[in-house]
Design goal:
Blueprint lengths: L3 E5 L2 E7 L5 H12 L8 H6 L1 H4 L11 E7 L2 E9 L17 E6 L8 H15 L4 E5 L6 H7 L3 E2 L8 E5 L1
Antiparallel strand pairs: 1-2, 2-3, 3-4, 4-5, 6-8, 7-8
Length: about 170
């Protein structure tokens, strides 16, 4: 993806593809996402436990893709979509044809519209790839649920307790 510039209400960002040498960013993002409500897990947990570790790698060969939001040269957020598959499903798994989305914004950059723009960018990127829908999982009580709902994600019937949501593209 060629870099895309975004400007609105004083927010100036560049969206670009995540680079192969930025895996450490996905590790940090996954840890912070899993600890959204307080310290529950360590980086060691994230890297060693399969249920977390698969979120720290984007595999372009299976169709995964990731976008970074950059402000003044610093990555302030990232969104990634992964085809984890039934052999190694994520929390938001619905089927082998639906990538699961993860979204992270640096704590100092939250509540500025960056997450919303990243979510819109991953939807657009999914459409460009011919993907029919995206999924994600959000725990009960996580304020991000409001963002996801406002951007068209709906709960998957029978998976509400797991926080699984999908968005048709």
């Amino acid at each position: 993806m060629d870099p895309v510039r975004y400007r609105q209400d004083g927010l100036s960002l560049v969206f670009r593809s995540l680079q192969s040498d930025e895996q450490g960013l996905l590790e940090k993002a996954t840890l912070e996402n899993m600890n959204w409500c307080g310290e529950r897990f360590t980086m060691r947990d994230i890297l060693r436990e399969r249920k977390f570790a698969h979120y720290t790698r984007v595999d372009a060969d299976r169709g995964d893709f990731a976008l970074a939001a950059v402000r003044q040269g610093d990555v302030v957020g990232v969104v990634w979509a992964q085809f984890l598959g039934s052999a190694d499903p994520g929390y938001g798994y619905v089927d082998d044809f639906t990538p699961e989305v993860s979204l992270w914004v640096q704590s100092e950059a939250r509540k500025q519209g960056i997450g919303r723009q990243l979510l819109r960018a991953v939807v657009q990127a999914g459409r460009q790839r011919g993907i029919q829908q995206l999924s994600l999982s959000v725990e009960e009580g996580n304020h991000a649920r409001e963002l996801y709902e406002s951007e068209g994600f709906v709960a998957v019937a029978g998976r509400e307790e797991d926080g699984v949501m999908i968005r048709q593209l």
